[in-house]
Amino acid sequence: MSTYTYSAGPGVLPTEVMQEIQQHLLTFEYEGVSIIETSHRSASFQRVVDSLELRLRRLMHIPKNYAVLWLQGGATLQFSMIPMNLRKQNRFAYVDTGIWSKKAMEDAKHFGELDVIHPFVDATGGMSFESSLVQEVDYLHVTLNNTIEGTRFTHIPEIDIPLIADASSNILAEQLDVERFGVIYAGAQKNIGPAGLTVVIIRRDLIQSLQLPSYLQYASHVDTLFNTPSTFSMYAAERVLKWVEDCGGVETMERLNRQKSDRVYSYLEESTCFSPIVTGERRSLTNIPFTTGNQKLDQRFERYAFERGLLELGGHRSVGGLRASLYNAMPLEGAERLVDVMRAFEEETHVSH
Ligand code: PMP
What we know:
By secondary structure, the protein is an alpha/beta fold.
């Protein structure tokens, strides 16, 4: 019986990639010297960095006027690095789409005034915001996919100020038009690789020289490794990006993610035991919250699934319920197995009622 993890992050990684890493762990460039023991200033590690960046640029069609930075501190450090580095008049706009956007706002408050914009839901259940509300701010921040709530933007209106996107849970999982954004940032631990790595894709003209502690300044990281980066995570990420390219790129990932999430949503809609928390176009392709409507029954299902090799189906600790994260490396069989186990639970639960 296969075991699947539906963890929201660190999330599932391609088995082939992990097998390859395991095989090469003790010998990177030289016999008996691991990647973990290799200097970040060595020529062999520089090849990893170059290939990692090249692959990301190819996969996301990142133009030359954007820099790609590999940082630490998670997406969470970007909550403060963004306002710190992009401030001019010290006024920022944030679309409030849930817990992670609220956390981004809390950190931004240290650096200026905030305009909080509430999204709207249209007739098809799509999510967007009113662009006329965004005025005289240094930037507008959006969380493209809400990992906890299971929602995503379906339409982002044109605005003439820099658009900053937290893409932690949908980067490489769906296609993004990089040129619409001033900054796209993401923690790596869902669709890119192991934890400990954060990618920041930033339009070069937004990078200012400021009086900031050195690490916290974007300018320090442009086209250079400023300090010791998360070398192992970068190495593994480079292999994951190769896998994404070999699979056919982000377009293929998006198509498969739609297929996987459709399987689960279709079942949730017809089930008499479970229901989806989110309906309509705005529902996430990668994070699917659902519930039986009864906390005890939710917990019973979580245990039932665990005993059958389906791990990490509990909802985020702040909202409870259940949640399945279906990132790029989750195979279609993982979505199908989840539906089978939910169906079996539904049947058994009815019998015992
Ligand atoms: N933003 C989003 C949308 C997330 O899902 C997460 C983590 N799950 C974060 C930010 C925080 O990321 P990190 O743990 O890398 O700081």
